[in-house]
Amino acid sequence: MAGRIEERLKALGITLPTPAAPIANYVPFTVSGSLVVISGQIPLRDGTIVYTGKVGETVTPEVAKEAAKLCFINLLAQLKAATGDLDTVKRVLRLGGFIAAPASFTQHAAVMNGASDLAVEVFGDAGRHARSTIGVPSLPGDAAVEVEGMFEIG
């Protein structure tokens, strides 16, 4: 039987993918006590990076916001792998966003709202979180966006 969060995802039309395997020498998540830290997730769908390029050049901020949303969905897939049950999540503590963009781009926060808004849609008030969002010159695989997260479980 699906739990409360799984039902919420279903209502939002979201199916969690198989968690992506790491592409280098790291683990996808670590669990310590009541904390789960998830490595940065890029906008993968069926093993393919679906949003590539630089935001503000070849990727619009609106499209990049969708990329951030997909990154959060991939975070959720890792979180489910880490916990076995998304209903164990007490709170989204922190999200970190990396936006591949030229130095002149300044709408990083609006892009990252794709992930932040979905966190609140999925977890309600427990989805409200601290956040950092930075611009970077490039990301693995030419991904437009990458999102990492920290969650409290119990």
From TrEMBL:
Q: Where is the signal peptide?
A: none
InterPro entries reported for this sequence = Endoribo_LPSP/chorism_mut-like, RutC-like_sf
**Pfam short name (any one):** YjgF_endoribonc
Question: Record's CDD domains?
Answer: YjgF_YER057c_UK114_like_1
Q: Which domain of life is it from?
A: Bacteria
All copies of domain Endoribonuclease L-PSP/chorismate mutase-like, residue ranges:
6-142
Q: What is this protein called?
A: RidA family protein
| Species | Roseomonas alba
Q: In the record, what lineage is assigned to the organism producing the protein?
A: Bacteria, Pseudomonadati, Pseudomonadota, Alphaproteobacteria, Acetobacterales
